[in-house]
Specification:
- The structure is a single chain.
- With about 170 residues, the chain is an alpha+beta fold.
- It is built from 3 helices and 4 strands, in the order H-H-E-E-E-E-H.
Length: about 170
């Protein structure tokens, strides 16, 4: 019958068998995927009834709300830290020296601490045989309103030129 149409029946049978084998293979793959899906569904629906599923979903929503609250709290804390960072001392310079000719060991020092606006202070400690004297001088916008020693001017200039500042996120 197929020979009258010019079709070789043997080739047709082989083609049908190949197609059948392909369909069997496809069916096996689909059965495996179905079994995996059924297993996942069983894991998802474990529990006695729909009520337990509802409780699980509500629990997840509560957990999400808790996490959102924690994120908001963390954002607030980060803002507080950023504000504190903006006013903190970031520019630092120190210079050790001998304040008096008879004293050695460079026990005297001048320390300058400035924030990003160049506001801060200079602390100078001078050591001699009788004791230690400490002075603090206010710095506003990189300037002082009192007379500075050479060491204090040097440490102020070093601190003002300091570029180690923390960048914003």
């Amino acid at each position: 019958m197929f020979e009258e149409l010019g079709i070789n029946s043997e080739i047709l049978i082989i083609a049908i068998l190949v197609l059948l084998l392909g369909l069997v293979f496809f069916n096996m793959v689909m059965v495996m995927k179905y079994n995996q899906l059924k297993e996942r569904y069983r894991d998802f629906m474990r529990g006695s009834n729909g009520k337990s599923l509802e409780e699980r979903i509500l629990t997840r929503f509560k957990q999400i709300d808790t996490l959102n609250d924690r994120i908001d709290d963390t954002i607030d804390r980060v803002k507080i830290l950023e504000d504190a960072r903006d006013t903190s001392f970031k520019k630092i310079a120190i210079h050790r020296y001998d304040a008096f000719a008879e004293m050695g060991g460079k026990l005297s020092y001048s320390l300058c601490l400035l924030n990003d606006d160049n506001d801060g202070f200079i602390m100078t400690s001078m050591h001699n045989r009788e004791g230690c004297y400490t002075y603090v001088k206010e710095v506003i916008k990189g300037n002082t309103f009192v007379i500075l020693s050479d060491e204090e001017r040097q440490v102020l200039e070093e601190a003002r030129e300091s570029i180690e500042t923390v960048q914003s996120m």
